[in-house]
Design brief:
6 strands; alpha/beta; globular; binds guanosine-5'-triphosphate; six-stranded mixed sheet; binds magnesium ion; about 160 residues; Rossmann fold
Length: about 160
């Protein structure tokens, strides 16, 4: 196996405060789920976690945009049932890299609540959207597979 094949693809998670980015990452890493507010940009081998405030406040979008330079795939995150804090429209156009969407917290949510999040993510330019719950691990393997197999060659 070549060096290139061994290197995990790096994602960057972006989304409003408390949408579930850090918890999603804990589920993807098979870690114990525990609440930990993200206070700064955290860089892992395979992921960059960002504080929600960097999306909540438009003056801080630039920090996310710069951090995204080190990622292979942008992952926009929004939680089912949240009708308020959407991501910037067509945010994906800011990044010259694939941008996918993740709906979090689908546990106990109605189809309508999930579809509201789906529409927000589509408006932000997410190309493929995965429905997940970190609490019951739904959609987590599907997300990992999508990240592993996404075609990066068009960028
Ligand atoms: N029901 C449910 N709640 C969740 C899920 N994932 C996260 N939460 C809850 O949502 C809250 C926020 O989760 P975080 O992962 O800290 O959210 P975040 O997007 O990283 O927040 P910031 O670091 O502030 O940007 C916590 O209370 C979590 O327990 C989920 O799959 N289902
Ligand atoms: Mg966080």
């Amino acid at each position: 196996m070549s060096e290139e094949q061994k290197k995990p693809r790096k994602i960057i998670l972006m989304g409003r405060s408390r949408v579930g980015k850090t918890t999603l990452l804990q589920a993807m890493h098979n870690e114990v789920i525990e609440y930990k507010k993200t206070q700064e940009i955290i860089v892992h081998d395979d992921a960059i976690d960002t504080p929600g405030e960097y999306i909540d406040q438009s003056s801080l979008w630039r920090a996310c945009i710069i951090a995204a330079c080190d990622a292979d795939i942008v992952v926009l995150v929004h939680d089912a049932g949240n009708t308020m804090g959407r991501l910037p429209q067509m945010f994906s156009m800011t990044f010259a890299k694939p941008t996918i969407g993740v709906i979090t917290k689908i546990d106990g949510k109605t189809e309508e609540e999930i579809e509201i999040a789906e529409n927000f993510l589509k408006m932000s330019g997410a190309s493929k959207i995965v429905r997940t719950s970190a609490y019951d691990h739904e959609g987590i393997q599907e997300l990992i597979d999508l990240i592993e197999n996404l075609d990066l060659s068009d960028y």
